[in-house]
Amino acid sequence: MIGMIYGHERYAIQGVQNEIKVVKDMAANHSKSAIVKAIAGNGIITIVKTIAWVFSGSGSLLSEAIHSLVDTLNQGLLLIGDTRALMQPTKKHPYGFGMEANYWGLLAAMGILAFGGGLSIEHGIASLKNPHAPENLTLALGVLIFAIIVEAWILYSVMKDVAKTRGDKTWWNHLKNQPSGTMTVLLEDLAAVVGCIVAALAIGACVVTGDPIYDALGQITIGVILVVTGVVLLWRGRSMLVGESICSDEIRDVRMFLEDQEGIQRVTNIKTRQLSPYSFTLKADLVFSGGYLASRLMDGYAGQFDSNSDPEKTRELMGRYSDDLLAEQAKRIDEIEAELQEAFPHAMYIDLEPHLREGYSVA
């Protein structure tokens, strides 16, 4: 039992060290890259849209300026979350700070919902009551076309980065397991592209019909898009904070890997939890083959039971054999954990437990 406890403690420590390395490598190449690109792009777009709104007075452009400003501020929150997720584990937080990314992502989602969607809808309703014809529509349309190009480039860049790590997963499963920062940037930029198109159509309708009501309707539509985006991100953030398992394909692969290990008869239960954007915990109950474990001790005990007829010595021998059998099982667990961590580097905290086979009773 001491060997088993020591093994689990050792792999917890190793898991912490591995997680720090993996998180730093992946964050540098993936989530942070996406967020920095989005901050730079949306910061420029916010300034350009604000200038165009001042000269045109278009409510749709104001909504888009608010949209881009909220996106920029939110992505700043995501950058804070990604940075804090890299903090080293402490005694108070032995599993690290990976969930910080989800927490700050949740705050960003609330910002999109309340400030982006709420302000746009409120201003749109006010514009419906007092319609105002926008001016300098050529400038407004030019700015929106520029914004669409920049937002589409950001969206393409992020999707290109995401595709590099997809492997043989389906796009749906791959996107579901993206870091909060990456998913927020993806959805925000998708909403931004759609919002710019809506604003352009609204202003175009004003030009064609001469009716400013379309500009107000454009604001409300953009607000609804932002509300929907915020709700989706809030729901996903809630699920991640409560605790999600890894995707079913990965669980299947882990089960197949364990069942292929020598000495394992069956895997009775697997539980996982996404601990951070780059790591997960894993607990599995394994049914060991007693014959396999005994075969690892045969050389050391060959002939000892046959040649011994003293009950006291037999009891002593049986006790020593039982201790060695438990130690051999603990050693095998350590070996499997090491191989499992090599095959699945994101499985940072592994807990493999021996389980009784069906029909066996200790009574």
Instruction: Please work out how many helical segments DSSP would assign.
Output: 12
Can you tell me the number of structural domains? 2
Assigned CATH architecture of the largest domain: Up-down Bundle
Return residue spans where pLDDT drops below 50 for at least 5 consecutive residues: 1-20
Q: Rg, please?
A: 29 Å
Quick structural summary:
This protein is mainly alpha-helical and 363 residues long. The chain is built from 12 helices and 3 strands, in the order αααααααααββαααβ.
SSE arrangement:
Elements: H1 2-29, H2 31-56, H3 59-84, H4 100-129, H5 137-164, H6 171-176, H7 180-209, H8 213-242, H9 248-259, E1 264-276, E2 279-288, H10 290-295, H11 298-301, H12 311-343, E3 347-354
Parallel strand pairs: 2-3
Antiparallel strand pairs: 1-2
Helix pairs in contact: 1-12, 2-3, 2-5, 2-7, 3-4, 3-7, 3-8, 4-8, 5-7, 7-8
Descriptive account of the structure:
The protein has 363 residues and is mostly helical. It has 2 domains: 220 residues, Alpha-lytic protease prodomain-like (Up-down Bundle), CATH 1.20.1510; 107 residues, Alpha-Beta Plaits. It has 12 helices and 3 strands, in the order H-H-H-H-H-H-H-H-H-E-E-H-H-H-E. A 3-stranded mixed beta sheet has the order 1-2-3. A hairpin with a 2-residue loop joins strand 1 and strand 2. Helix 4 packs antiparallel against helix 8. It is rod-shaped and about 110 Å long.
